[in-house]
Amino acid sequence: AQKITQTQPGMFVQEKEAVTLDCTYDTSDPSYGLFWYKQPSSGEMIFLIYQGSYDQQNATEGRYSLNFQKARKSANLVISASQLGDSAMYFCAMRPDTGRRALTFGSGTRLQVQP
Amino acid sequence: DVKVTQSSRYLVKRTGEKVFLECVQDMDHENMFWYRQDPGLGLRLIYFSYDVKMKEKGDIPEGYSVSREKKERFSLILESASTNQTSMYLCASSLGTTGTYYGYTFGSGTRLTVV
To answer: How far is B92 from chain A (nearest CA, A)?
Structure first.
């Protein structure tokens, strides 16, 4: 079974600053994928970034980067140069590469960007 | 534009009613999923399906059933709705049985209130 832990229910950040959202995970699967999703107040789930467990480099997508530390089982999301439109719920999720194909989600972090 | 469509955005039902939540995807995806989202708990997997007429229990299947008669449609059924099933319900689909990465597409959600 997989478990995702997001310990920050809410975060504040000033516009244009960087922010790190924490995510730790627990799994016995040897190969897996880690995902981050954004959910604005409209409710849609927006895919942000993916990291494979065997990827050597940390994933980056524009202003988003994933700080992957496999030994610590952490997959923190870093948002650089925060914008007001980044205010949303953020979910970390994982999925094993074999077996159950469903995502397991954390409880989420609500990020508020202040002007 | 590829889509996962949930038939209702908002639903209000009475305790004891049989409730159907419908989800349709137009991407020819094999995998379909039903989650419920509650504050502080994130998204929790109810049921999923890898193929037509196939279903598997997720982490919280009690009180729910599903039906997948056609590849594109995955229905969630609340046999006898109860107030503790008041929640946001999200449907998702994905393509892929092999490989280390495949994306998930989410519907916009159905907010169900049971009174």
So the answer is: 10
